[in-house]
Amino acid sequence: MPIEKTASRLQMIDALRGLVIIFMMLDHVRETFYLYHQASDPVDIAHTEPALFWSRMLSHLCAPIFVVLTGLSAYLYQQKRQNLQQTREFLLKRGLFLIVLELTLVNFAWTAQFPPQVIYLQVIWAIGLSMVALACLIGLPLRIQLALSLLIIFGHNLLDQITFSQPFVQNIWHVLHQRGWIEFGEDLKVRTSYPVLPWIGVILFGYVLGHLFNQKIAPAKRNQYLIMIGSGSIALFIVLRLLNFYGDQPWLEMNTWQQTLMSFFNLTKYPPSLLFLLWNIGLGILILVAIDRYSKLKIMQPLVVFGSVPMFFYLLHLYVLKILYVICVMWFGHNYGEYFGVSSVAILWILTAIFCVLLYPVVKAFSQYKHSHPEIKILKYF
């Protein structure tokens, strides 16, 4: 039975993470230079151009894959060290670190407010809090972990209509499942953009999925299991979506076939619906297998570099986009109402490609520095 090297497994994970990082940057370029053309969630099919809709849907791969890979990487971390307590401590420390980053550097990149008047609890917050939750769950038996992850993923939509009259309890519910606002006096409001309960199910599923990456399982056998899981997830999505009764808002027959197709794939992200997770996690798993099969292609190396330092790339691209937007406003002024923006989705794709090329040397240099200086403990969080 062929044994896969740890470096090979980590590279395929980094490559997938790097790919979705690029999709994420495309969406953030949209939020920076196409903000005058708002894309709500769910997207308004009747008033959203197809190119913008499908670009937005592509970015929906990012959060589910990030969270699944975070759980999977936690398992690999534990497998390497054979120490449950050390893994739990790492998850707690990194989770709390990500939460602090969300509240400080990430939020400032979006709002440019100090002290902040509004704090948005977004994907980094959700990943951080999910890591804290995972730290409490990794000691459970494998079967219970799998059952709990599936119970959350498949069952959380049953909770959609629940609200609470007590403000304190409702605020907790905003954090767990219902997107909303939490007010701290008159000077600070917090938006729970990413309610965390579904993401806890996803990160736990990723941790369980990590068992397929055990060195005792041959790569070919693992990929067979992954194809079965990914294909099964997509097949279940199609069946449930066609039945149109549970897992997301109903899809509608629209004026054109393209609008009908857009309605079919118009899935709720905040919080992520069952169908949103089935489609994006299933597709992400199949992409992971494809990356493994074509890992020797040269295009994979830049993806591995981007995915090897995801937090550094995340902060870097947010601040680069913010600075460039300020420069453009100073140079060109507001050309679309109160915004500066570009004229088409095609230009957003071109800008994203340019930013990838320009940021790659910086990201590569930081990645090399990180991996050549393991004694600098803070670098492992990036």
UniProtKB/TrEMBL annotation:
Keywords: Membrane, Transmembrane, Transmembrane helix
Transmembrane segments: 12-29, 57-76, 96-113, 119-140, 147-164, 196-213, 225-247, 270-291, 303-333, 339-363
Tagged with keyword Ribosomal protein: no
Signal peptide: none
Domain Heparan-alpha-glucosaminide N-acetyltransferase catalytic: 9-238
Highest taxon of the lineage: Bacteria
Keyword field contains Transmembrane helix: yes
InterPro entries found in the cross-reference section: HGSNAT_cat (IPR012429)
One Pfam family in the UniProt entry: HGSNAT_cat
Protein name in the entry: Heparan-alpha-glucosaminide N-acetyltransferase catalytic domain-containing protein
